[in-house]
Design brief:
heterodimer; A: 87 residues; five-stranded mixed β-sheet; two-stranded antiparallel sheet; globular; B: 776 residues; alpha+beta; Aldehyde Oxidoreductase, domain 4; six-stranded mixed β-sheet; 29 strands; 24% strand
């Protein structure tokens, strides 16, 4: 199952847990699974059914450009971090 | 002459051989640039052109009670006056645009102030007139009634309980991820705040980590805002036609960003706007936003004529974004043998008048060079009464590197460990977990440190009195994004390439070279140009050191498209299967019949007789971008009587992936270092007590000149990026990151005093020498 790293500001919903494993073959499925496991968590990371603007989803060390549509595999590691713009 | 350390045996260098990549052909834009024929934003002349001028706030913080434009309108030659009342009310919700994350209400209010002036220089109103002189006179006739409010100029002050509040309804976005903060539709904060955003992240258990440390060093650092200092001031000409079509000619880092942002501020569909990119006289991140385009557009709508708005140098300083001022606290714990066990940082970045400082990238860069098991980082984005900050070369990273790398140097000194050995011992590599959580993919940090250690500069005998040598490292994430290219084969065997990235640092040649490499033709046979928004597919901004990567990739794919079509065409001519043909070194050949061979130029001659033109097309949004690391060595001499720091020698070692055009890469490194030296030693915004900038000219805002700098030796370490067809990594931004810390460390080496504030100007150095104390 994908390895999901939970942002510190969501950990009040996860009993302080910073990492969990959620079934899912894409980010959308994992997000729904996260919200089922930790109600309210999706609202912290999403604006409706899209990732909240300003949040970067990092999958296996790489920022994805397609948010909820990004595919995951069994060993994927997913992080949510502040998005970055360059100069 | 730059150094290429191919002889260094412990470097993982790019070994793949290319015919075009890695060579130094003439730049395609050289003749136009040196003859003055290149067209910049001020070169646009149109029939009926009107000239605009902006009225700017004399106050750093004031409520706008009324604006009376009647006297200005009555002045002969004045055609229109515009205020924020002419702009539509747009949403204050943060939205995602391909080029970044924007709050259009803030963007609109920065173009023309709405209810408050939030910094000296904030645009209040604009005039369009027959001549620039009349426009200038007219703005002086606009009567604005202000209720002057106390300003807050410093981020830490702005966080205090009784601080003046800039935005009555600003809502702090307190979560681990969101960046820009700001108003949210339908809700407002119940009490005022200047804290736009706060986030935190980390790995491990930082407090437990510090318990394992034998030595803990905690220090506070301050950096002042500095400007990008591009030579060409902002300029835009806009024609709003009677049929609603809007044409923009402007100097920017992205014509599509200009189109999209202007459309949002004006409340018109993007399809109504054509943005034409002019040549750009420098940007460095500062030309990724709109300032003039929406204002010129509404003046054009009012008059039915094209309107040109130009800034002078003072307007550039006071009306456009410098980078943030910052306050950074760093705490690092190490064992006696020099292993880092924990690190913590608080980064407070001043966003200027509207949210959106580069605190997010600063936070993710600050400990990037190191393998640290326990990390905690907190970032704050704070509004103050200064111009809205804009991106500047590796946004957020240089102040972060100044803080972290100065602290590391102090640790090395206390432990008597060579600073480069310390970095090799603690350096991040592929598989190391970042402080932000993810694992590093292929990176070349340690290779830069090893190359620095082997460099003659590091091993050269030291000078004597007042001599100091310092080193520091830095990181920039690099970016990517959508990019497009269209390449048409001409009958003479050349290729006309249209791509979408405004060329700031030589990118059109770098794009052409990647296309030429695939086709096996000379770079000079490719004619690159940058298309407007109606003639090329969407391409994200020239920013984030992304263009050689993403647009180069688009050109690579467009060339592959041409190759496929050439093979199909040859198969048709020779009546053979495409499976039997291959394209190599500029020729299409039959795999088993040596008689069937045709050069690219020969086939180009036959296109229209064999089926018509061949046009290669590609749109990409590639991942696999490789982050960039650099390690710098600097020698300084400190004049103990004047406090002046002279740079004696500078060596910048950088992992560049694969240098497509080494001369351009060296130029990027040298340019970044020159800007970093200015940031370190002389550049700063100086404000009076009322928030007015006291040095808004290049005479008083002291950027280094060629006379202030030694030859900067650029060492190219090529750890090829496996995520790009040619191994490309962005190279343009990271060279500014290590400079301030390297120089601060050298100054400490010279005089035994550590400076914690930038710039390390003669007066600040002299004060430190006289007091015998470090500056914080």
């Amino acid at each position: 199952m994908p390895d999901i790293w939970l942002p510190i500001a969501t950990q009040h919903l996860t009993n302080g847990k910073h990492r969990t494993y959620i079934e899912g073959s894409n980010v959308a499925q994992v997000m729904d699974g996260l919200d089922k496991k930790y109600p309210g968590l999706k609202a912290l990371l999403c604006d409706g059914n899209d990732i909240t603007p300003g949040i970067a989803v990092i999958i296996d060390g790489e920022v994805t450009n397609i948010g909820m549509l990004a595919n995951l595999d069994e060993k994927s590691e997913v992080h949510f971090l502040p998005a970055i713009g360059g100069g | 002459m730059a150094t290429r350390p191919k002889e260094a045996k412990n470097l993982a260098l790019s070994t793949k051989e290319f015919s075009i990549i890695g060579t130094r052909p003439p730049r395609h834009d050289a003749l136009d640039k040196v003859t003055g024929r290149a067209k910049y934003s001020d070169d646009i002349q149109l029939p009926g052109l009107l000239h605009g001028k902006i009225l700017r706030s004399p106050y750093a913080h004031a409520r706008i009670k009324s604006i009376d434009t009647s006297k200005a309108m009555a002045l002969p030659g004045v055609h229109a006056v515009a205020t924020s009342a002419d702009l539509p009310q747009v949403s204050g919700k943060v939205v995602d645009l391909e080029n970044g994350f924007f709050n259009y209400l803030f963007l609109s209010n920065n173009c023309l102030a709405n209810d408050k002036a939030l910094y000296v220089g904030h645009a209040i109103a604009a005039v369009a007139a027959s001549t620039q002189e009349i426009a200038k006179n007219a703005v002086s006739l606009i009567e604005v009634t202000y209720e002057v409010l106390p300003p807050v100029m410093h981020g830490l002050k702005a966080l205090e309980a009784n601080s003046p509040i800039l935005h009555d309804n600003l809502e702090t976005t307190i979560d681990a991820t969101a960046r820009a903060g700001g108003y949210r539709d339908g809700s407002g904060s119940t009490k005022g705040t200047n804290l736009a955003n706060r986030f935190e992240f980390g790995i491990g258990d930082v407090e437990e980590g510090f318990k394992k440390a034998d030595l803990i060093v905690e220090r506070k650092y301050r950096t002042e805002p500095v400007h990008q200092g591009y030579i060409e001031p902002h300029g835009a000409t806009v024609l709003w036609s009677e049929n609603g079509a809007i044409t923009i000619w402007s100097s920017s880092q992205g014509q599509f960003a200009i189109r999209d942002l202007t459309a949002k501020v004006l409340g018109v569909p993007e399809s109504k706007i054509k943005a034409i990119p002019m040549e750009i006289g420098g940007g460095f991140g500062g030309k990724t936003l709109v300032y003039l385009e929406p204002v010129a557009a509404i003046l054009s709508r009012k008059t039915g004529r094209p309107v040109k708005l130009l800034m002078d140098r003072t307007e550039v300083f006071i009306g456009t974004g410098p980078t943030s001022g910052t306050d950074i606290t760093v705490k690092i714990g190490v064992t006696n043998n020099g292993k880092i066990v924990a690190a913590k940082a608080l980064l407070v970045y001043e966003a200027g008048a509207f949210p959106g400082s580069p605190v997010a990238p600063g936070s993710q860069c600050i400990f990037a060079p190191y393998n640290i098991p326990n990390v905690y980082i907190e970032g704050l984005d704070v509004v103050v009464n200064r111009p809205k900050s804009a991106a500047y070369r590796a946004p957020g990273s240089p102040p972060a590197a100044f803080a972290a790398e100065s602290t590391v140097d102090e640790i090395c000194q206390k432990l008597s460990i060579d600073p480069l050995d310390f970095r090799i011992m603690n350096g991040a590599k592929e598989g190391t977990r970042k402080g932000s959580g993810p694992l590093w993919k292929s990176i070349g940090y340690i290779e830069t440190v090893e190359a620095a250690k082997q460099h003659s500069h590091y091993n050269e005998p030291r000078g004597k009195q007042s001599f100091g040598r310092g080193v520091a490292s830095g990181f920039w994430v690099n970016g990517s994004g959508p990019a497009s290219a269209t390449a048409s084969v001409n009958s003479d065997g050349t290729v006309s390439l249209v791509e979408g990235s405004p060329d700031i640092g030589g990118s059109r040649t770098v794009a052409a070279m990647q296309l030429a490499e695939v086709l096996g033709i000379p770079s000079e046979d490719v004619k690159p140009s940058i298309g407007d928004t109606d003639s090329i597919g969407y391409t994200s901004v020239t920013g984030g050191s992304s263009v050689a990567f993403k647009t180069g990739w688009a050109c690579y794919e467009a060339a592959q498209d041409i190759k496929s079509q050439i093979i199909e065409r040859a198969a048709k001519m020779w009546k053979v299967s495409t499976d039997n043909l291959e394209y190599q070194s500029g020729k299409v050949c039959h795999k088993s019949d040596p008689e069937l061979t045709m050069h690219f130029k020969e086939l180009a001659l036959k296109l229209n007789a064999t089926g018509g033109p061949i046009v290669g097309r590609a749109t990409v949004d590639p991942r696999g971008v490789g982050g960039a690391f650099a390690t710098h060595i600097v020698d300084v001499e400190v004049d103990s009587e004047t406090g002046k720091v002279n740079i004696l020698r500078y060596t910048a070692v950088q992992d560049v992936g694969k240098a497509i055009h080494p001369t351009y890469v060296e130029g990027q490194i040298q340019g970044g270092v020159a800007q970093g030296i200015g940031w370190a030693l002389s550049e700063e915004y100086v404000f009076d007590k009322n928030g007015k900038m006291m040095n808004p000219t290049f005479l008083d805002y002291r950027m280094p000149t060629a006379l202030d700098l030694p030859m900067i030796d650029a060492v190219l370490v090529e750890v090829a990026n496996p995520g790009h067809p040619f191994g490309v990594k962005g190279v343009g931004e990271v060279p500014i990151a290590p400079c301030m810390a390297a120089i601060a460390n050298a100054i400490h080496d010279a005089i035994g005093i550590r400076l914690y504030e930038l710039p390390m100007s003669p007066s600040r150095v002299l004060d430190a020498i006289r007091s015998g104390n470090s500056s914080s």
